[in-house]
Amino acid sequence: MKKNLQNRREFLKAAAMSVAVTDLSGCSEGLQSSASKGGKPNLLFIMTDQQRFDTLSYAGNKILNTPNLDNLARQGVYFEKTYTQCAVCGPARASMLTGHTVAHTKVISNKKAYVPEDTGVMPMKTYDEILSENGYECEYYGKWHAPIFRARLYKNPVTMAGIHKTELGPGHKKAYMQYLNPLYPDRELKKGELKDTLTDRPYLPDPIDRRFDLKKKGKDSNIKVGQSDIHGTTKIPAQYHMPAFEAGEAIHALEKLKDKPLSITCSFHHPHPPYLATEKYIKMYPPEKMVSPMNINDGMADSPYINMKKRTDEKYSDPKMIQYFMSEYYALIKEIDDWVGQILNKLDELGLTDNTLVIFTSDHGEMLGSHGMRGKFCFYEESSHVPMMIRFPGRIKPGTKVKAPVSNMDLFATILDYLDMPPHPSDGSSLRGLIEGTFNEDDTYVVTEWLSDLQGKPSHMVLKDGWKLMRPHPSAKKVKKALYNLNDDPHELKNLVADGADSKAYAVKVTELETCFQDWIMRTSLNRH
Asked: Are 355 and 263 in contact (CB under 8 A)?
């Protein structure tokens, strides 16, 4: 066992240096089936944490350069309007893994990721559990952050390293620290440095860092702070940084399982906080080159999230401070893009590309100073709208774009559909019909959820044809309803029903979206586990 661990460590060091209930499937002419390419098709699922929709050069970002993710989008299908089922890690991941709504998984908050199985939370199987039952070798690397008992099928070393009640998931932090300790041991702090709470390694804080001001004022800067309060440049060398480790694990798994039907997930921790990028990547995106959000000064008087705004540090409404935040955030995404390229190159090298379904998405977004806020937890575009692309040579036509709104909860059914698995009930739908043009995009809408704070925030969002309705739970008398026309107001600055009444001008639109919501309630209620 010790020898195997050493070999794995040496490899990583070297590397661093279901058809749904609603069937939307179809078949495009001229595209080959996976069976013609020999054996069961593979799955490679790559996911980031907290990456918003507009952080791709392919999506029109003029500052951030993401050539590898751009190529993946060009080589398959790019979804222009993908929404997370819930804008926080645990609920979002549970919905992606199972294809079920937050109401049905009962993972309404991150805390539910650590409850025992006998609580009835997330009783349904994940797509990997189904694939495993059908002859697939399934391994998962990186952040898990869903109910831990659902990870028991994974036998790869990261899981076996030990399960910790951290948001990094089954054994991920322990495995990374075992890798990092001999390569970059802890050391004494130098002038101006602090230690981060994730790796206990030095970093140079930016002015937006919470402890930066304390240190500057001569106060105690050693106080414990949350990961979201940590901003700056890590002193961990790029070749040993967490994304390098995560990608190295996935590359090693591809080499190990290349002769078997495989499902491998590489779940990157970043660009989730702590917002600590390496010097190599920070230099690519200096703060002074960053452009602050257009809606950073939104007073949000008519917003249902006014209380969130009031609780946010004023630094996140300061354009100069946000430039530091954007620099770190963009640097982390650029680093991940480089490693995604290495993973896809390994797929090519092993001859697996033509028989592998590749998916890229994120669990939720990041406000990044938009509306003067940080983090997620809301239905605004920056928090709920995420990137997503799927590649499958011979099955998905390169250059395909889907403009219709979709949920990444639909990935469960899409995976089972393209991998020719038996039908399995889910609340989502296979995206194959939209991808192959056999389903009318005009008929689509998406509903997302927030169920952990019904009295303080809207509970559901409905989106159709560029119109977004944020609707409070019936019991929440003090939560505002909001209607935004993203076609004319992409930055969500004007709540069209702010006066509390559905004016004549928008009553028809509100009724249309409410009808979509009731249709969604009825449809998903049929799939209750």
From this structure: no
Q: How far apart are CA 340 and CA 319, in angstroms?
A: 31
Residue 392 contacts residue 352 (beta carbons within 8 Å): no
Neighbours of 347 (CB within 10 A): 22
Chain-centroid distance, C-alpha 112: 18
Do residues 332 and 241 lie in contact, with contact meaning Cβ atoms separated by under 8 Å?
no
Four-CA torsion 174, 179, 185, 191, nearest 10 degrees? -80
User: What CA–CA distance (Å, rounded) separates 408 from 21?
Assistant: 16
Question: To 10 degrees, the CA torsion angle through 504, 506, 509, 514?
Answer: -80
Angle at CA 527, nearest 5°, toward 524 and 529?
125
Closest CA to 389 of 357, 412, 421: 357
Ordered DSSP codes for 103-122: HHH---SGGGGGS-GGG-SS
The per-residue pLDDT for 525 is: 86
Give this prediction's pTM: 0.91
Q: Is the pLDDT of residue 491 over 90?
A: yes
The three-point CA angle 133-137-138 to 5° equals 90
Angle subtended at Cα 164 by Cα 163 and Cα 170, rounded to the nearest 5 degrees = 45
